[in-house]
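As a warm-up, study this chain.
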Amino acid sequence: MYYTSLKKTKIGSLNVYMTEGEKGGPVIILLHGYGANAMDLAGFHELVKCKKGTTWIFPDGIMEVPIAFNYVGRAWFDILSTALERFSLEGNGIEFSDITPTGLQEARLKIEEMIDKLNVPFETITIGGFSQGAMLATEVTLRQNANPAGLVILSGTLIHKNIWEELAKTKSDIQFFMSHGTDDPLLPYNGAKKLESLFRNSGMSGEFVSFNGGHEIPDKVVARLGEYLIR
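Now compare it with the structure written out below.
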């Protein structure tokens, strides 16, 4: 689906879809998951309540990945073939807590370049994403000198724990929003709870929304996310 209220453009080296908000107003950046594209979360700009004058930005991932016959999706970094193999053979979710995904740094630099080109204070930006996009949003946030207006993690998980533990120590002022399905077959619920614990142990505060479901974003989460953004 294409939304007529969105403009396709390029910011830095990334193709993005965006809405034009008010100058000096809030900015929300949402990063899609593995195999999707910028349009996967684009409907949020109409579904999610937010402050007047908000600019929404939905970037396309930097990699092309084959998803099905005659269909190519996009991704931010390698999802790790060894992890996928373990998932398919054992039927368990993918455990990332001790892994630094290949290509994560390159993806982070692309997002940081885009943010720099926006020429707005990072403190006015809420950054987030779904699944792989949530991992990248967290990585970007923890490595910035300034804190964002908000951090949104939808069905994300903990990666390279030792690195994030150190980085999070300087981020105690951040208020996060997290959601995760208790029956998520891809990124287990426990991985999200581990990430929440890391945040809270570092002094960060926020909201964790659990729901009965899998790797998805139900209406309940959309509504609660709107409340978070309004606050």
